[in-house]
Amino acid sequence: MNDIQTSLIDYRIPSENVPETISESLDSDERKLLIDKVRELLIKENGTVVAHYYTDPDLQQLADETGGYVSDSLDMARFGNESHASTLVVCGVRFMGETAKILNPEKRILMPDLEANCSLDIGCPPDQFSAFCDQHPDHTVVVYANTSAAVKARADWMVTSGSAVDVIRHLHANGEKIIWAPDMYLGDYVQKQTGADMVLWQGSCIVHEEFKGKELLEMKQQHPDAKVLVHPESPASVIQYADVVGSTTAVIKAAKEMDALKFIVATDRGIFYKMRQAAPEKIFIEAPTAGKSATCKSCAHCPWMAMNSLRKLADVLENGKNEIHVDMDTIERAQIPIKRLLAFSKIQNQAIYGNNDA
Ligand code: SF4
């Protein structure tokens, strides 16, 4: 297979492989019992909860109230590193648990559901990705945070949505050609921003690729006073109407700091919990997703993120199940691209933590 053929393979996952979105339904008594149980178990197990912005508000609230943390994936791992807890319960998707393990190999990492995955991770199988890299030996391999430990172990650099443009610009200035994986929309956005020579892996996020430019334009016309916040995993047809393009942390910050009172938001609707906390007086509207033709069964909500629940959280803490294991060889190799990013950001004097994304 030659380079061009390989680079054109579509690694987006078909809709039949996307699970149904099943959110937990609890009455107030059940919710209270579970929350009390988790609080007790966290103390008993010296554990803490780190949750992603896209998880259920109950989990985000519990993390906040028990001394845990709610953020994006790298920041979640960073918090885990600084925490005195010996058990981290990562409420998010699998690559987040693995990243937490890579940066905290001595800690026990549990997850409410090990089936909680990510279309970007699934769409970048390590063997195929490694073969792809082998076909471009003169390229620097840059992977997004939303990849498995094995894919990170094959990379030269890991980047986040908040750091991608700066890292690629730096590599481009050094005359380096780049393999980018796995998100083709984010890769396209970064390529346009930097003019770098990039070969793009053809993966996508099933949530963000469902936002639609034409419908967004119509919504903008109906709400001329609203600003549009877009995550760069979205297609260029959506990004073109953005007032701010940024990571989860960046769009929450924009919602808080911009003058506007109304925002149309193109990212997973789980983010509204933190957005409303950050700017309670403002109005947030979900950007439109496709209707009948949608491949994302959840539409603006990640079905894998929805697998995290209070009931499962209590269960894994009680029974010590769903532990994340990554072998030491992979950990050591995967630490290299992550630590390279951390060192780069330090030199650039950037606040990388809090600029990552899922
Ligand atoms: S929202 Fe998209 S990028 Fe985030 S975990 Fe779900 S599938 Fe992956």
Please write out the topology.
Elements: H1 3-8, H2 28-44, E1 47-52, H3 57-65, E2 69-71, H4 73-82, E3 87-91, H5 94-103, E4 108-110, H6 119-122, H7 126-134, E5 139-144, H8 149-153, E6 157-159, H9 164-173, E7 177-181, H10 184-194, E8 198-200, H11 213-222, E9 227-230, H12 236-239, E10 244-245, H13 248-257, E11 262-266, H14 272-278, E12 283-286, H15 310-319, H16 328-347
Parallel strand pairs: 1-2, 1-3, 3-4, 5-6, 5-7, 7-8, 9-10, 9-11, 11-12
Helix pairs in contact: 2-15, 4-5, 9-10
Bound molecules: iron/sulfur cluster (SF4).
Iron/sulfur cluster is lined by residues 54, 93, 118-120, 146, 205-207, 268, 302, 304-305, 358.
Q: How does this structure look, described?
A:
The protein has 358 residues and is α/β, with parallel strands linked by helices. The protein folds into three domains: 3-16 and 120-205 and 330-347, Rossmann fold (3-Layer(aba) Sandwich); 19-117 and 305-329, NadA-like (Rossmann fold, 3-Layer(aba) Sandwich), CATH 3.40.50.10800; 208-286, Rossmann fold (3-Layer(aba) Sandwich), CATH 3.40.50. The chain has helices at residues 3-8, 28-44, 57-65, 73-82, 94-103, 119-122, 126-134, 149-153, 164-173, 184-194, 213-222, 236-239, 248-257, 272-278, 310-319, 328-347, and strands at residues 47-52, 69-71, 87-91, 108-110, 139-144, 157-159, 177-181, 198-200, 227-230, 244-245, 262-266, 283-286. The longest helix is centred in the last third of the chain and has 20 residues, at 328-347.
